[in-house]
Amino acid sequence: MIDRMRFPAAAAALAAALAAGMALPGAAQASEQLARKNACMSCHALDKKIVGPGFRDVAAELKKKGGEERALKAIVSGSKGAWSPVPMPPMKGVSEKDAKELAKWLAEGAR
Ligand code: HEC
């Protein structure tokens, strides 16, 4: 009985959380969060250069050349000379699963 009374409240909270998530621009919030979680965003922003190039620019470049595979290689092995003399170190702390998801997200436009 208690469970039944609690259920609608939990459902309402979940619905509110989903609505809040959907109100944010872009469908791929999960992947931007993943980039944040993996410290990518300390060197990258979505739409401007910080230490590394903006992820939207990276996405456009990946579309022209290399796609998901190129992104994955940069995450796993690092990158140098593609954008500037400043190298990106291999991101050793990133799990294989996260690396693949991030590479896919970037290759698909970082939206
Ligand atoms: C210490 C700073 C730093 C961090 C942390 C960092 N990057 Fe980078 N990233 C760079 C720099 C600098 C470049 C440009 C390298 C170059 O010119 O080849 C770059 C380039 C890239 C590229 C483009 C590679 C290419 O071939 O054009 C991708 C993709 C990328 N980063 C993804 C990521 C992801 C995903 C993460 C988090 C897992 C991440 N980066 C974390 C500094 C960083």
Would you mind describing this structure in some detail?
It contains 5 helices and no strands. By secondary structure, the chain is mainly alpha-helical. Helices cover 58% and strands 0% of the residues. It has one domain: Cytochrome Bc1 Complex, Chain D, domain 2. About 10% of the residues have low confidence. Bound molecules: heme C (HEC).
Rounded to the nearest angstrom, the distance between the terminal CA atoms is: 44 Å
Give the number of domains. Answer: 1
CATH architecture: Orthogonal Bundle
Mean pLDDT: 85
CATH class: Mainly Alpha
Overall shape? globular
Binned, the helix content reads: 55-70%
Oligomer: single chain
Sequence of secondary-structure elements: HHHHH
What proportion strand? Answer: under 5%
| Structural class based on helices, strands and sheet pairing | mainly alpha
- What is the strand tally? 0
Contiguous runs where pLDDT drops below 50 for at least 5 residues: 18-28
Count of alpha and pi helical runs: 5
Radius of gyration: 18 Å
Largest sheet: none
Under CATH, the homologous superfamily reads Cytochrome c-like domain
Write the CATH fold name: Cytochrome Bc1 Complex, Chain D, domain 2
Ligand inventory: heme C
